[in-house]
Write a structure and sequence with these properties.
The structure holds two protein chains of two kinds.
Chain A lengths: L2 H30 L18 H6 L14 H28 L7 H13 L2 H16 L8 H23 L4 H8 L4 H29 L3 H6 L6 H10 L5 H40 L1
Helix pairs in contact in A: 1-11, 3-6, 3-8, 3-10, 4-6, 5-6, 6-8, 7-8, 8-11
Chain B lengths: L1 H39 L3 E2 L4 E2 L5 H8 L1 H35 L3 H12 L6 H6 L1 H5 L4 H8 L14 H25 L3 H9 L4 H29 L3 H6 L7 H10 L3 H25 L2 H4 L1
Antiparallel strand pairs in B: 1-2
Helix pairs in contact in B: 1-13, 2-13, 3-8, 3-10, 8-10, 9-10, 10-13, 12-13
The chains are: A mainly alpha, B mainly alpha.
Amino acid sequence: MESRILKPALGLYVALFLLFLYGPFVVLTIISFQQGPEGGPQFPIIEWSTYWYRHIFGLTPPSRIAPLPFGEALLRSLTLAFMTMVVSTVLGVMSAQAFRRKFKGSGAVFYLIVLGMMVPGVLTGLGVSLLANNIIGIERHWYTTAFATHVAYTFPFAFLVMLAILNRFDSSVEEASWSLGVDPWTTFRKVTFPLIFPGVLSAMLFAFTLSLDEFPRTLFASGRDQTLPLAIYGTFAVEIHPNIFAFGVLTTLFSFALLSVYGILMAMSVRRAKKMAMQEDIE
Amino acid sequence: MSGTVTIEKRQSRTTRWLLAPGIIWMSLFLVLPILMIVYVSFWTQTTFNISPEPTLASWKLFFSSDTYTGALWTTIRIWLIVLACTFVVGYPTALFVGLFIKSKTLSTILLVICVIPFWTSFLIRVLAWRPMLGKEGAINIVLQKLGIIQQPIEVLLFTELSVIIGMTQIYCVFMVGPIAFMLSRIDRNIIEAARDLGAGFGRIFWKIIFPLSLPGVVVGAIFVSVMVLGEFATSGALSGRKVNLLGNIIITQVGSLKWAMASVVGVILTIVMGFVIAGFLRIVDLKREL
């Protein structure tokens, strides 16, 4: 190929692309170290300080800027993300498992599930609120109505991940188990599930991160008590201070920690699978 | 013979039980809410409430008001521009990651690097564009330091341009991923063969590489379209309320308890959405590409 010109040129382009992608994050990190409490969320940096980080944890002397009301919101968001993760992964595994056999109306069911990721969140949120307010007549809460919309959003992702995994799944091991007289449920638990576990982990990761940062669905559907993205949105309306940027840096670091846990679990399950394969070879 | 029939039967019963929870959940919390929006759009709106007497009042109001129809056109315009921008910005990156890098590890690493910014909260990522684009923002400071401009550029923030820049950055990765995936699946021997037959890179690109990457482009375009059409946070935060998308109208209408009007806008958004997705799915069968 014309790699002598084209490849370096594209490489340079990718570098620029990454600059574009990371620019705002770099600026956000710089400004999170702005001097406080007078320094605003803009350049120039008056003086480097960790004031806004201490401000988040309430370690600074009281000033006119109220601390971010994020504590409870964060707890709610984590709980909601966990609930969403469990339910949508279970639903995803079940539906994908069903799709391994051909059945009538599979196309319609496929698009019904995938619809969840295609409908704009603001619409699902609006619809569920209308339903709760005017037909059922219940109050909206993050753990009821918002939870329902979160699962309707993350379940398709879990489903697609599991579908991709199961498509490449060698079912002869299951057949072997069945022919030995093991019942289907035990076969699933002892044979299928351990083999698809890496996929299950990915589905869980997808569901958790999507739910944790979910905003448009939650906006209408969650009622009085705010989740984290709603609390952040609340600060949009009032004046913005660098503490929100410091918070952004911290949550990113937290996500990295989460991702590392996922990486370790994944590596462990891969190693275990390898070990099992080796044992089989010996036997 | 009868044995196989019962196995068949049992299996199809299992399939039904496996599918039922998912189908019920999606029907109750996705399909029913959308039908509800359609239903409520014909309800009667009083000052602070709605009642189920059917009326076309909200629909008439929508089409007689320049604010509302304007929002529809703005939404379509912004969507088309952002879609084009994410494609133009994303395709070369995908080409490099998916096709030009031979090492699987390296291309995975590059993709992970592209995804890392997503672990910052969406709203904070939007907000980070303000100190970037402002009059005393990073871009203006850098350009002035380099001596490219004398006066700071003021049109960067709180305009339609800032909304487009912000959305392009936030959504372009959804274009890169699927395209890179499709490109990495291309059989290199085809490209090799075309080159042996004397085709130049331009010809190879248009005749082989681009058509084979098209499913990726379509999947990416669906992702970007879904998200941009339903947007309201980016346009709200970066345009200084100058750019009003359909999403923004829904938010303000719900804020003032005008549920019927919000529903009308919701139905219009659903229709636009339906056309867009159906159009894209005509090009590519999503289920087959998986």
